[in-house]
Amino acid sequence: MAQINPSMLSADFARLAEEAAAVEGADWLHIDVMDNHFVPNLTLGLPVVEALGRATGTPLDCHLMIEDPDRWAPGFVEAGAGSVTFHAEAAAAPVRLAREIRAKGARASLALKPATPIEPFEDLLPELDMVLVMTVEPGFGGQSFLDIMLPKIRRTRQLIDRHGLPLWLQVDGGVSASTIERCAEAGADVFVAGSAVYGADDPAAAVASLRAQAEKAASRPTSG
What we know:
There is one protein chain. With 224 residues, the protein is of the alpha/beta class. It has helices at 16-21, 46-55, 69-78, 94-103, 150-162, 180-186, 195-198, 203-218; strands spanning 3-6, 29-34, 60-65, 83-87, 107-112, 130-134, 168-172, 190-193. Strand 6, helix 5 (150-162) and strand 7 (168-172) form a beta-alpha-beta unit. The longest helix has 16 residues, at 203-218. Catalyzes the reversible epimerization of D-ribulose 5-phosphate to D-xylulose 5-phosphate.
């Protein structure tokens, strides 16, 4: 089943609790944590994650675009995140970090920038609950979807299936009504959508519509 995770990066930061309530029916709330070092932007941190967790019943999906996630990621589980994603390019000891996140009770996810291939991390897959394939360069919302990431999504799905693992495959960046079906056909099943949700007149309806599109595309028979 397709999951839609509205990105709070596209929400009104002055009304985060209300913006969370506006996407009733969302599977997770996606929270982009940026430190102005790993990526050139500064966003939400631990206190906001903790406060948002108290304000909503929707689980929190924290994407850490930060340096030294080995040090900081476990704190986001303690703050209430149900899923914590760290970047392959930033983690010093990804297996140890994934195990620590899971031991604290959250799902562990590995994110890959567009230029980072999945293949070197094949042996790590059993330690994870999700892989995030970035479909834009991380750091800013509202970017255009990178079509050249579709083969990488397919390769990632093939690796997951080859090992018989129950991993989710998330895509983040430029996901909209015009791109979500291609992502689903390539094998993604978790979709981060920012502008496509919070830029809509009815964000909750946009979530439902995107999910229906993804599920329809995923059910199509593949050729070859």
